[in-house]
Amino acid sequence: MILLDRVTKTYSKRHTALDRISLRVEPKEFVIVIGQSGAGKTTLLRLLTREEKPTSGKIVVGGIDYDKLSDKDIPLLRRKIGTVFQDFKLLPNKTVFENVAFALEIVGIGGREIQATVPKVLDIVNLSEKAKNMPSELSGGERQRVAIARAVVRQPKILIADEPTGNLDPKHAWDVIKVLEKINRFGTTVLLTTHNQEIVNKLKRRVVTLQGGKITSDRANASYRI
Amino acid sequence: MKKKVITLFRIIRAGLINFVRNLSLATAAVAIMVVTLTIVLFLVIANATFTNTIAQLDSKINISVYLLDSDTPQQVNTLEQQLRALPNVRNVGYVSKDEALAEYKAENANNTPLLEAISETGNPLPASVQIEPRNISQIQSIKNFLDKPANVALQDPEVGSTYSGDRKVAINQIAKTTNLLKEGGIIGVAIFAIISALIIFNTLRMAIFNRRDEITIMRLLGATTWYIRGPFVVESMSYGVIAALISVLFIKALFSTASSTLQASSFGLLNISYAYTYFTQHFWLLLTLQLGVGILLGAVSSIIATRRFLKFKSHR
Hints:
Chain A has 226 residues and is α/β, with parallel strands linked by helices. Chain A has helices at residues 41-48, 74-80, 96-105, 111-124, 140-152, 170-185, 197-203, and strands at residues 2-10, 16-25, 30-34, 56-61, 64-65, 81-84, 158-162, 189-193, 206-211, 214-219.
């Protein structure tokens, strides 16, 4: 479960990115956050991954109260959340297989288990044949699917995807969204931000609209409307 | 426990893999480390050689006190003991009249008229006490002792005491110069070592700066500080190992192929054969030292360089 209670984030006196946001996301939900550039979508996600600290307000994710989180615990928190970024953030010096395996290595999972798990996940994102390729040899869509494989390989309870389709053409964008839906069916809570009107309208999921750092609407089975 | 072993193994493996995959960057960093480590090693050897030259010079300078034939063995004995008690005296030796004559004859073996003349007059050579000073620049304290009236009375008034043949001024000059050079050498090595450390540190820092995004990504995926930093440290340490090995082998090759050229180009100031002996005798020590410096510099530089990118945002 994700819980934000009157969360405010200001970068300077003039710039308030989020203004007293309250949001509750239940387990296994699929929530889409929409809003124009600068509305605060990315800030919201960065607060959840603890890349930023809120100026005020309370955040609890999967039972972890962020106020009680020390720097030492941040890696442990991030291991529980799968994250997909608009710019993929793959490790350039590692192959596709190694990029996905890395997520398991840092948790200390044994080599044999990694050898067994990674191919299965690569199969889910249809990248089995590219396991030995370097990220520079992949298309944008393929890279994003590697990033998703990496985010889900640890079977996190929560998956956060920050405009994962932002850099992709429509066909590849749909591939990525289908993977996210598949993962959601397996029981992972998905929090997705997007600009893509078509995707929002076809998905028919809960849509949270951000505008000027405030939530202006929160509707179930909704379509794109700002 | 098992997890920790797996993690350690993975950190080392990742470091070595990174080393291979970043070969161009690694080559640049290793090259700079080789150059700096070689120069430091060269300076260390040069300094040792120089110190050796100075020591040889020192040992050749001594003071001879020529005694009167009338001095009793007891008086001579007391003088020797008193001399030994002086802080600046390393060694005291006694040359009897007969020994002096034998030495004189040996030195002038080819000069028959001189030998004949000396055998006719009996033994005109005085017995002497030979003093080897510890520090030639502080020879004055020994001179003061010898100039005491009681000691002057024991000495042959015609010759008295000589300082390697009355070259005291020259000796003093040499002493001052060598001391200056000895201290200068140590300071020079130290300064260059510090500069080298800074150059190496900066090179590694640049190499890591180029890969800061990687660190950020690993951070976002939930890797711990040491899981991210470890491979960088291993990689930088392996630069150090390779650079140290190359620099030691380079110096070795230089000595074995170009000794005569080196001897000629050092204007006779340095004893190159001694330098090579010093290098061979201390080979393992120097190698260990180079490896140690290389590994330490690699480790410290990479730890400091990664710190910046590993920090969590703690402001609200």
